[in-house]
C-alpha cells in the first residue's frame, strides 16, 4: 500500500504547471498490478475533492483530470456540523472570569431556547453555545457548511478561527471591547466579508459557484445602502449560499435574529423586522411567503461551460492571430542601458509561428533598435536569420510550455466572443456578470502562462543575430532586452 499524504500539494502544482507535472503517474499507480495475488493499493489524502484542484484549468484540461480521477474511488469524509462545532468549542479558550462566564451562560441559554426547534442537533445543549462564544450561534452553524461546500473543510475553518486576516475571529477579538451588559457576537455579515476576501477571485474560476458571483454582485450593487441594510443583505446572501431549504434557510425570523446579539432584545428585533421590510420594498430581496424564505438571487439557465466549448470548436483563426488579438505585444524599453548610456533603446516584440515567415519579418517602427520574436511553433526553427528584412537586429525566443498557453488562450478567446456576441447574455444579467468575472480571471491566467512560457528556465532557446546565445541566461523578457542591448551596443 502506497499512502500519499498532502496529495493536494501535488495537485496544486499540477494545476499551476500543467505540462511540467506528471499527473499521469497517478493513473499508472492506480492501474499497477503485478498479478492477481500482488496488487498495489494507492491511497491519496486530500483536503478537497480531486476535481476542486482543477478549477483554474481550462475545460479540456479538466476533462483530462476527470479521466485520471475515474481510476480512483472517492472516500469522502466530512465531519457533521455537530462535530465541527465541538472542534470550534475546543479551539476557543474562554476567559474564566466568573461575571463574564455567568453572562455568557445566561445569553447562551436564551439562544438555545430560540434554536432548539431547528438547530438543537448542531449544539446539543446551551453549554456548547457558551463554549463557542463570541461566535453567534448561527455563524457557528453556517461556518462548517460554508467550509465544506466552498472551502477546504476543517483547514478553512481553523484558518478563520486562528488566522489574523481581516474579519477573522482573531481580528474580532482584538477589535471588540467586552461589555458584560451587552455581549457582542461575531455575526454572519462579518463571516461574509471574511470569505469574500479570503477566497478572492478564485471563486470566479469555479463554474459551479455561479451563485457566489450573483450574490456578491447584488451586494456590490447595493453598497450605497445604509450599513444595517447592507449587513442584512450579506446575512441573507450567506444563508442562501449554504442552504437550499432546511433549517438554515433564510426565514424572516432567523434573519432578524442573525443581526441581533441577544434573542430577547425586542427593540433590536423590531428594528431588524422593519429593515427586512425595507429591503423587500426596495426589491433588493424577494420574500417567498409559501416557503417563508428571503432570497437575493435570480438564477440562470445559461450554460457557460457548454457555450465555451461550442465557441472554441467553431474557432477559425490561428493560434498566432488569436494571441495577437487577446494579448498584443508592446515595445520593450531597455531601461538600465538607456539610463547608463543616456541613449534611449527599445525593441519591438512580435509573435511568429512559421519558419517561412522568419525572413520576411520587418520592423514596424523606424526608430526601434531591433525586433524580438516570440516563437509559437511546435518545434524550434533550424535556422534563424541575423537581421530582419529591413536590416534590424533580430532575436528569436522559443517557448517552454506552449500547450498550456494554447489552452488558456482558447478559453479567454471564447469568453471574449461570448461576451461580445452571445444574444442570451443581453437578457441574462446573472450569466453576463459571471462571464465578465471569468474574463478577468482568464486574462490573469493567460498573462501567467505567457510568463511561464518565456521565463528562461533552461528549456528556452534564444537566438541573437542568428546565433544561439548560451553564455547569457536572462530570467525574463525584460532581462532579455538588457542582454540584447549588451550584445549589440557594447
| Sheet/helix structural class | alpha/beta
- Rg result: 29 Å
Global morphology: elongated
Q: What is the overall number of helices?
A: 21
Strand count, sense and closure of the main sheet?
Answer: 6 strands, mixed
Q: Identify the strand order in the major beta sheet.
A: 5-6-7-8-9-10
Average of the residue pLDDT scores:
82
- What is the straight-line distance between the termini? 61 Å
Percent of residues in beta strands: 5-15%
Low-confidence stretches: none
Helix content: 40-55%
Number of strands: 10
Overview of the molecule:
The chain is an alpha/beta fold. Helix content is 51%, strand content 7%. The protein has 21 helices and ten strands. It has a six-stranded mixed β-sheet with strand order 5-6-7-8-9-10. A two-stranded parallel ribbon has the order 1-2. A hairpin with a 2-residue loop joins strand 9 and strand 10. It is elongated.
Topology summary:
Layout: E1 2-4, H1 7-16, H2 24-30, E2 42-44, H3 59-69, H4 81-91, H5 98-123, H6 126-131, H7 137-150, H8 154-162, H9 169-175, H10 188-199, H11 210-221, H12 227-242, H13 252-258, H14 266-281, E3 286-288, E4 293-295, H15 304-313, H16 319-326, E5 332-333, H17 335-341, E6 346-352, E7 371-375, E8 394-397, H18 402-421, H19 424-427, H20 429-453, E9 462-464, E10 467-468, H21 477-489
Parallel strand pairs: 1-2, 6-7, 7-8
Antiparallel strand pairs: 3-4, 5-6, 8-9, 9-10
Helix pairs in contact: 4-7, 7-8, 7-12, 10-12, 11-12, 11-20, 12-14, 13-14, 15-18, 16-18, 18-20
